[in-house]
């Protein structure tokens, strides 16, 4: 499939950036603050899903409070339509959206939702029943709206920068799961024999989620836009016709120049439409869609409710979830090793489709295998999920102009979240023949 011209083939951009930075300054601006930026992207990714991963990780608390409502599956299913609908709306209007306000609103809503978990528990005194459960579902929906703001917005924003930023952001998303799992082991060990131990652990999780969300608000608002490398890439995107970076440039102390009229400099304003971008990258969109259909059809519902009882007892589900989260995190760093990074479009599609062999593997392992095999399979699920996700999202934007990269990032996240939604619905198929 044909792609648009790469940056080096667009003659006006280099001269404009040379005027802004100087010939020697361009090289310095493209690297200055890069490692600090990578670390901030990791933290921003972490904050993106820390609240929701916290709700999933304390599933034993919600299962104890709401044993009749399948909280692990219901919370996930409540979350998904809101994140998908919000992302779809923003993707359609991507070129006109103020990315800075979009992302800041999302991180603020993450903070308020995590704080809402604490408030709800205090008001209900840790009680069960349909009322508190509806409250939990409302908070899950709010987290979905926040994720719909942030995940697509950040992916689109980072896609017009260096690939390491996208990789670090999605590694941070996986790290939120690994960190919440590690903290859950700690809180379970500390509070297991104490009165209201489950509740204390859950409240500690929500407090940490509040902290991470607030940290993300501050980092994105005041630190990230002032990094030289970030200002450089956003300036380049603005010179290519992007309207979404204007507020971020202003926050970084750069007054964006008016975009030339199409008849004066058509190369600045011409860009592929979303439909054209999707046509050129349909295989990548299908990749992320299929990756997450499979992953969410198994994690977390099947692992939490359909793997039986084993010698690990109440720790078994926590070990499985931790196994997935840690291996998912490791998988997202593997593409940094060039020798094993999948860059072939055909190879990626083959690898993605091959993962569906894990479905019969999980079925027969749950039925006949022991816990060791289940832990190994779960680790393989997470490893492949993380590795393939990063490979797709870092390869797809290459060769496009800034506005097109932003749009493509939003499109791919929309397909990713669509896969999550379909996967979360498919997860209920495991209950066929087992009753409600």
From TrEMBL:
GO terms for cellular component: membrane. The keyword Transmembrane applies. The keyword Transmembrane helix applies. The chain crosses the membrane at residues 35-54, 74-92, 104-123, 129-146, 158-183, 203-224, 284-303, 315-335, 347-366, 372-396, 408-431. It is found in: Membrane. It comes from the Eukaryota. Belongs to the SLC29A/ENT transporter (TC 2.A.57) family. This is Equilibrative nucleotide transporter 3-like. It holds the Pfam family Nucleoside_tran.
């Amino acid at each position: 499939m044909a792609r648009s011209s790469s940056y080096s083939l667009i003659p006006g951009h280099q001269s404009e950036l040379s005027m802004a930075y100087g010939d020697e300054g361009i090289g310095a601006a493209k690297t200055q603050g890069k490692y600090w930026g990578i670390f901030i992207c990791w933290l921003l990714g972490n904050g993106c899903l820390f609240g929701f991963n916290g709700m999933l990780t304390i599933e034993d608390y919600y299962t104890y409070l709401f044993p009749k409502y399948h909280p692990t599956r219901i919370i996930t299913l409540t979350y998904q339509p809101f994140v998908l609908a919000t992302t779809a709306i923003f993707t359609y209007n991507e070129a006109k959206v103020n990315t800075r306000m979009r992302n800041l609103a999302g991180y603020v809503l993450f903070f308020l939702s995590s704080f809402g978990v604490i408030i709800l528990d205090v008001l209900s005194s840790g009680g069960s029943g349909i009322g508190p459960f509806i409250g939990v579902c409302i908070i899950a929906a709010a987290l979905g709206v926040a994720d719909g703001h942030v995940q697509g917005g950040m992916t689109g924003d980072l896609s017009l920068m260096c690939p390491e930023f996208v990789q670090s952001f999605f590694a941070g998303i996986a790290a939120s799961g690994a960190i919440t799992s590690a903290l859950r082991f700690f809180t379970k060990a500390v509070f297991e024999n104490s009165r209201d131990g489950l509740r204390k652990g859950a409240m500690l999780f929500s407090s940490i989620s509040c902290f991470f969300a607030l940290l993300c608000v501050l980092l994105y608002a005041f630190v990230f836009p002032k990094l030289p490398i970030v200002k450089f890439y956003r300036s380049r995107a603005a010179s290519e016709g992007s309207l979404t970076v204007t507020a971020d440039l202003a926050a970084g102390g750069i007054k964006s120049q008016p975009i030339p009229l199409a008849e004066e400099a058509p190369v600045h304003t011409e860009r592929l439409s979303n439909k054209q971008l999707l046509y050129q990258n349909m295989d990548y969109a299908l990749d992320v869609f299929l990756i997450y259909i499979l992953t969410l059809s198994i994690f977390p519902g099947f692992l939490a409710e359909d793997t039986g009882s084993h010698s690990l007892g109440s720790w078994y589900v926590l070990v499985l979830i931790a196994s997935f989260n840690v291996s998912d995190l490791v998988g997202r760093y593997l593409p940094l090793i060039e020798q094993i990074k999948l860059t072939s479009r055909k190879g990626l599609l083959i690898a993605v489709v091959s993962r569906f062999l894990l479905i019969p593997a999980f079925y027969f392992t749950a039925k006949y295998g022991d816990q060791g095999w289940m832990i190994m399979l779960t680790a393989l699920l997470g490893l492949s999920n993380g590795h393939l996700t990063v490979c797709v999202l870092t390869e797809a934007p290459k060769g496009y102009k800034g506005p097109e990269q932003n749009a493509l990032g939003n499109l791919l996240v929309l397909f990713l979240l669509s896969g999550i939604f379909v996967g979360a619905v498919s997860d209920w198929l495991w209950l066929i023949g087992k009753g409600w």
